[in-house]
Specification:
The complex is a heterotrimer of chains A (145), B (650) and C (186). With 650 residues, chain B is of the alpha+beta class. Chain B contains 19 helices and 10 strands. In chain B, helix 1 packs antiparallel against helix 6, helix 9 runs antiparallel to helix 10 and helix 18 runs antiparallel to helix 19. Chain C has 2 domains: 32 residues; 123 residues, Glutaredoxin. Classes of the chains: A mainly alpha (145), B alpha+beta (650), C alpha/beta (186).
C-alpha cells in the first residue's frame, strides 16, 4: 500500500518538473485569462489582436522570470478581476468557492433529517444476521437455478 | 401566400391550445367525461396545425423566398439544401417554432400512448401541455414572429452564419429540443400528480420512460453540440463551459438525477416528493436555459441575437411555470404519503447520494454561470467565471459519484450488509489500481491522469463484475448464456450506460493529459514530426465552394505504420456575410486525432500560421456519451418500461 | 409544530427561485451591456508610458498630465479604426470650441496612414504619442479603440469612455465631468 502511495507521489513530482517548462507555464496562464474583446473565450482560444498582444506580455514576463501570480496581478491591476477566468479566493467570491460544499452539506443534512424522521415514525424489523442472510441467499439461489 | 397560411395556422394553433388547456381543466373540475375525452383530439389537431405552419416556413427557406424577413436575414440562395432546411431552426424565431412543434408532438404522443391512463390524470397532463403551448405560441406570435414579410425584398439573402453550416449542428437543435421539451412531459405529469394529490405506482411507471426519452435525446443533443464545437471552432477543445453550453448541461444533470431517483420511486415507492421536485426543476432549467440563451443577460459565444423584451417575456414564462409548479409543490408535497423505509447503506441510499451529488453539481454549474450577475448586483464589480473554475469544482464533485456508481448496483435494496460486498470492492479496487498504475508507468503522466484512469477502470471493473455476479460466475457456460439472455434489458441498459461513462472519462483524461499542441508558422515544403506522425506541408491553393472561396492547404501525413493520408485545412471566406472562418482538417482515429488549423498567411513568402493538435483517444469522449444514450435506449426497450405496459391490469 | 416546519421546508425551493428571478429582472431592466468593462484605473495616477514620435507633432508623455492647468483628455485612436473617424469631429469641436487639451495615443498604426488622417481631417491633439506595438496601451487597460480617458489636474484618471464619443456622449457625459473637474479647487 505504501509503495503505491509513493508511486503516486512520484508522479506528482514528475509532472511538476514538466510544468516548470516556460511554454507550459504560458499555456496554463493563457487558459486562465480571458480574451477581453471576445465573447467568452480564453487567451488560448483566441486570435484577436488584443489577445495576441496579451499573450506576448505573458510570454515576455515569463521569460523575465516572473511568477504566475505576479503576471496575474499585473494584468488585474490594469484590466480588473474580469480578466481572470478562475476567480480569486476572496471574500467577494466566497460563495462561489464554498458553494459546492454548501450544496452537498444541505443535501446530506436534508437526507439525514428525512431518514431519522422516517425511522422515528415506523417500526423497523430487526436486521438479519450474517448467518441468516447466507442461508436465505442459498435458498434464493436454489430457486433461481 | 403559403407563408401567410403558415402564419394563420399558427394563430389557429394558439386558439386550439387554449382549448387544450381549458377543456380538460373544466372537464376535470366538473367531472364531465366527454370533455376530458375530447382533449386528445384537440391535441392531434393542434399538432397538425403547427406541423403545417412549420412546413410553410421550411418551404420559404427551400425556395429562398427573400420577401420573408427571416429568410432574407438567415439564408442565401447558394446555400446547400441541407443548410437551407437547418437554417429554419438556426435562428431565434424558427428555433422557437421547432420547440413548439416538438411540444405538440409530445402532447400527441402522450395522448396516444396514454389511452390507458386514468382519464383524470391524462386530461390534466394534456391540459398542462396545452398551457405551455399557449405560452410559447403567443411568445412566437407577439415577440418573435417568423412569418413577417418585408415590402421591398432584396434579390439575395444575407447568408447564414457560416460557422453554423455543419451537419452536426444542423441536427443538434432538434435533438436538444426533443430533450428539453421531453422534460415538459415529466413536468406536466408532476403538476397533474400534485393536482390529483396522489402519486402512485402507475404515475412513476409513466414518468420513468418519459424521463428516459428526454434524457436520451438531451444526451445526444449535447454530444452533437460538443462534437460540432470540436470540429468547427478550431481550437481542438470540446467543452468550453460557456453559459449556453451550461444551459443545456444543467437540465442534463437534473434529468440524470431524476432518472436515478425515479428508479427508487418505481421499485421502492419512496422519494416521491423529491422525484416530483426534480421533474419540476428539470423543466425549469430548460426554461432558464432558454432565458440565458435568448435574453442577452450573460456574455456567450453562442447566444442568439438578444432582445430585452423577449428576455422579459421568457422571464415571465419562467416565473409562471416554475413559480407555479413550486407553489403547488410547496402546498401539496407535505401531504404526499412517504413510502417504504431504507437504511443509509442500501441501493436506495446509494441512489440518494447520487441524487445529492448530481443536484449539487447542477446547482454549482448554475452558481458559476450566474455568479457574474450576482456580483454585479451586490458589489457592482465584474468577475469572470470560466473553465478553470468549473474544472476545479466539478471534477471533485463527480469523483465520489463515479466511485459510488461502480458498486451501488451490487448493494441490495432496503438494507445492504457491507460484509457481502467488501471483498468485491477490494477486488475491483486492486484491479483498477493495477491497470491505472500500469498505464502511468509505461506512458508517464500527471496525478490527475492517474486519477482519471483509475476512476474509469474502477467503473469498468465494477460494472463487469456486477454483471458477472448477476449471471453467475461459477455456473456452466450454458446456464451463463441462459441467465444472460434472461436478464432484463434495463439491467443491460444500466451497465452499458455506466461503461459509457467510463469510456467518456478515458477520453477526457487521455486527450487532456497526452495532448500535443503545436502553434507555429510553417513554410511550404516543411516537414514536422508530431509524436510518431510525419507531416509535410505540400501545397496551398485557392478553391471555390457553393457559397464561399478558400485557401486550401495540403498536408501529407505518414503515420508510424507507413500509411499515407492527406489533410486539407481551409481558411474560408463567405462573401455573403463577409466572414472568415477556419475549417480545421481532422484525421480521426480510434486512438488519436490529428487536427490541423490553417491560420493567416504571414509576411514571409509561403509561410502560414498553423495550429496542430494531436489528441489521443479524444473520439472516446463522444463514443462514451453515445454509449450512455444507447444504454438509455436499451433501458427504454425493456418490457416493463414500454409505455403503457402493465396498465391493463389496473 | 411539526407540520408547520414541514411546510416551511417545502417552500424553500420557491424562495430560492424567486431570489434568482430578482437578479435576472435587475439585469434585464438595467439593460447593461454585459461585455462592457469598467476601468480599474479610476482615481489612479495615469500610468507612465513610453511612446514614440509621430513626425511633425509634439510627443505626448504622462509628464504632460502632471500639474496641468486643467482637465485633459487622452484619446486612443487609429487610422484603421472606423468609429475613430466618427468621433473625430467631436474631438475637433471639443479642442476648438471648448478649449480642452486632448492628447492622442496612436494605437498600433502605420505612421504614414496616421499622418494622412490628421492632414485630411484636422488635428484635435495637443500632443501625440505613437504606441506601435500596442504594448504601452496595455498599461492603460485598453481593450479596444477608440477609448478616451478624462484626466484631472493632478494626473488622475477620472473617467474612461469605451467606444466612439458621439454628440450625446460629448454633451451629456464628457463635458459635464470636465466642467466638474474645472470647478474643483477654484
Amino acid at each position: 500500500m505504501t509503495t503505491i502511495i509513493k508511486f503516486i507521489f512520484c508522479f506528482f513530482i514528475i509532472s511538476n518538473s514538466v510544468l516548470a517548462d516556460n511554454n507550459k507555464a504560458a499555456y496554463e496562464l493563457y487558459k486562465e485569462l480571458r480574451c477581453l474583446v471576445c465573447q467568452n473565450q480564453s487567451l488560448l482560444e483566441s486570435d484577436a489582436p488584443l489577445a495576441l498582444d496579451l499573450k506576448k506580455v505573458v510570454r515576455d514576463k515569463i521569460e523575465l522570470g516572473q511568477s504566475k501570480n505576479e503576471i496575474k496581478k499585473f494584468l488585474v491591476d490594469r484590466y480588473g478581476e474580469f480578466i481572470l477566468l478562475k476567480p480569486k479566493y476572496s471574500i467577494q467570491n466566497i460563495l462561489l468557492w464554498l458553494g459546492p460544499i454548501l450544496f452537498l452539506f444541505i443535501g446530506f443534512f436534508v437526507t439525514f433529517v428525512f431518514l431519522r424522521k422516517q425511522s422515528m415514525y415506523k417500526e423497523e424489523p430487526l436486521p438479519l444476521t450474517n448467518k441468516e442472510e447466507n442461508s436465505l441467499k442459498k435458498i434464493l439461489d436454489n430457486n433461481v437455478s | 401566400m403559403i407563408i401567410e397560411l403558415g402564419h394563420f395556422l399558427l394563430a389557429l394553433a394558439l386558439s386550439l391550445s387554449i382549448f387544450q388547456f381549458l377543456v380538460p381543466a373544466v372537464g376535470v373540475k366538473f367531472n364531465y367525461h366527454s370533455m376530458m375525452k375530447s382533449t386528445s383530439i384537440i391535441s392531434y389537431m393542434s399538432f397538425i396545425l403547427v406541423l403545417f405552419s412549420f412546413l410553410s416556413l421550411v418551404y420559404a427557406y427551400i425556395t429562398s423566398d427573400f420577401s420573408v424577413s427571416l429568410v432574407a436575414k438567415n439564408s442565401h440562395s447558394l446555400k446547400p439544401l441541407l443548410y437551407k432546411i437547418s437554417g429554419v431552426w438556426g435562428n431565434h424565431e424558427g428555433s422557437l417554432l421547432l420547440w413548439v412543434l416538438i411540444l405538440t408532438f409530445y402532447s400527441v404522443a402522450v395522448a396516444i400512448l396514454g389511452r390507458r391512463l386514468p382519464l383524470k390524470l391524462l386530461s390534466l397532463v394534456l391540459s398542462c401541455q396545452g398551457l405551455i403551448a399557449v405560452a410559447f405560441i403567443s411568445f412566437i406570435l407577439f415577440t418573435s414572429n417568423p412569418f413577417v414579410r418585408i415590402f421591398f425584398p432584396n434579390a439575395e439573402g444575407e447568408g447564414f452564419n457560416p460557422i453554423l453550416q455543419d451537419f452536426g449542428l444542423a441536427i443538434h437543435p432538434p435533438f436538444l429540443y426533443l430533450g428539453y421539451v421531453g422534460l415538459s412531459v415529466t413536468f406536466s405529469f408532476s403538476i397533474a400528480a400534485l393536482l390529483v394529490g396522489k402519486v402512485d405506482t402507475i404515475w412513476v411507471k409513466w414518468v420513468r420512460p418519459w424521463t428516459l426519452i428526454a434524457w436520451v435525446f438531451l444526451t445526444i443533443g449535447i454530444a452533437l453540440g460538443s462534437w460540432w464545437a470540436y470540429r468547427e471552432l478550431g481550437w481542438g477543445g470540446w467543452w468550453f463551459w460557456d453559459p449556453v453550453e451550461n444551459a443545456s448541461f444543467m437540465p442534463w444533470l437534473v434529468a440524470t438525477a431524476l432518472l436515478h431517483s425515479s428508479i427508487v420511486a418505481e421499485k421502492r415507492d419512496t422519494l416521491k416528493a423529491w422525484t416530483i421536485l426534480l421533474a419540476i426543476i428539470a423543466f425549469s432549467f430548460c426554461l432558464l436555459g432558454t432565458f440565458i440563451v435568448r435574453s442577452g443577460v450573460l456574455v456567450s459565444v453562442h447566444a442568439f441575437a438578444s432582445d430585452p423584451s423577449r428576455g422579459l417575456y421568457i422571464l415571465l414564462l419562467l416565473v409562471f411555470f416554475t413559480g407555479g409548479g413550486l407553489v403547488l409543490f410547496a402546498k401539496r408535497a407535505p401531504y404526499l404519503k412517504s413510502g417504504s423505509l431504507f437504511k443509509p447503506l442500501s441501493r436506495e441510499g446509494a441512489l440518494v447520494i447520487n441524487n445529492i451529488i448530481f443536484a449539487s453539481a447542477a446547482a454549482t454549474v448554475l452558481l458559476g454561470t450566474l455568479y457574474p450577475i450576482f456580483i454585479d448586483a451586490i458589489n457592482n464589480s465584474k468577475v469572470s467565471v470560466g473553465p478553470p473554475y468549473f474544472e476545479a469544482v466539478f471534477i471533485p464533485l463527480m469523483v465520489p459519484a463515479i466511485l459510488l456508481c461502480a458498486f451501488s448496483p451490487m448493494l441490495s435494496w432496503k438494507r445492504a450488509i457491507i460484509d457481502n460486498i467488501i471483498e468485491r470492492i477490494i477486488a475491483v479496487f486492486i484491479c483498477s489500481l493495477f491497470l491505472a498504475s500500469l498505464i502511468i508507468i509505461i506512458h508517464g503522466g500527471s496525478a490527475s491522469a492517474f486519477l482519471g484512469l483509475f476512476l474509469a477502470f474502477w467503473l469498468i471493473c465494477g460494472t463487469l463484475y456486477e454483471f458477472l455476479i448477476k449471471v453467475g460466475v461459477k455456473s456452466s457456460f450454458k446456464t451463463f448464456i441462459q441467465r444472460a439472455l434472461n436478464l432484463p434489458r434495463s439491467a443491460y441498459g444500466m451497465s452499458v450506460a455506466h461503461i459509457g461513462v467510463a469510456i467518456f472519462i478515458i477520453g477526457v483524461t487521455v486527450s487532456g493529459a497526452w495532448r500535443i499542441d503545436i502553434e507555429k508558422p510553417i513554410i511550404l515544403g516543411e516537414k514536422i514530426i508530431v509524436k510518431d506522425i510525419e507531416l509535410t506541408f505540400k501545397n496551398i491553393k485557392k478553391v471555390e465552394g457553393p457559397n464561399w472561396n478558400a485557401d486550401r492547404g495540403e498536408f501529407e501525413i505518414i503515420t508510424s505504420n507507413g500509411a499515407k493520408h492527406f489533410l486539407y485545412p481551409e481558411r474560408r471566406f463567405y462573401p455573403a456575410s463577409q466572414v472568415n472562418t477556419s475549417e480545421p482538417a481532422i484525421m480521426s482515429g480510434i486512438f488519436s486525432d490529428l487536427y490541423i488549423v490553417l491560420g493567416e498567411s504571414l509576411q514571409e513568402e509561403d509561410s502560414f500560421a498553423f495550429r496542430i493538435y494531436y489528441s489521443p483517444f479524444i473520439s472516446w469522449i463522444w463514443f462514451g456519451i453515445l454509449l450512455m444514450a444507447v444504454g438509455g435506449i436499451l433501458s427504454l426497450s425493456d418490457r416493463k418500461h414500454r409505455l403503457g405496459y402493465g396498465l391493463k391490469q389496473v | 409544530m411539526k407540520n408547520k416546519l414541514k411546510y416551511f421546508y417545502s417552500y424553500t425551493p420557491l424562495i430560492v427561485f424567486l431570489i434568482l428571478v430578482l437578479f435576472f429582472a435587475r439585469q434585464l431592466i438595467l439593460k447593461e451591456d454585459p461585455s462592457e468593462l469598467p476601468s480599474v484605473l479610476i482615481d489612479e495616477k495615469f500610468p507612465s508610458i513610453i511612446l514614440s514620435e509621430l513626425e511633425g507633432y509634439k510627443v505626448f508623455s504622462n509628464k504632460n498630465l502632471i500639474n496641468a492647468n486643467g482637465p485633459s483628455l487622452v484619446n486612443i485612436w487609429s487610422s484603421w479604426c472606423v468609429p475613430c473617424k466618427v468621433e473625430h469631429e467631436y474631438l475637433m469641436s471639443m479642442s476648438n470650441n471648448d478649449n480642452i487639451i486632448i492628447y492622442g495615443i496612436n494605437y498600433k498604426d502605420n505612421k504614414a496612414e496616421a499622418l494622412k488622417v490628421l492632414d485630411l481631417n484636422g488635428n484635435p491633439f495637443y500632443a501625440i504619442g505613437a504606441d506601435q506595438d500596442g504594448m504601452q496601451s496595455i498599461n492603460l487597460g485598453v481593450y479596444g479603440v477608440p477609448e478616451t480617458f478624462i484626466i484631472d489636474r493632478d494626473g488622475n484618471i477620472r473617467y474612461r469612455h469605451v467606444g466612439p464619443i458621439l454628440e450625446y456622449d460629448m454633451e451629456k457625459i464628457i463635458l459635464p465631468i470636465i466642467n466638474k473637474i474645472k470647478q474643483e479647487r477654484l
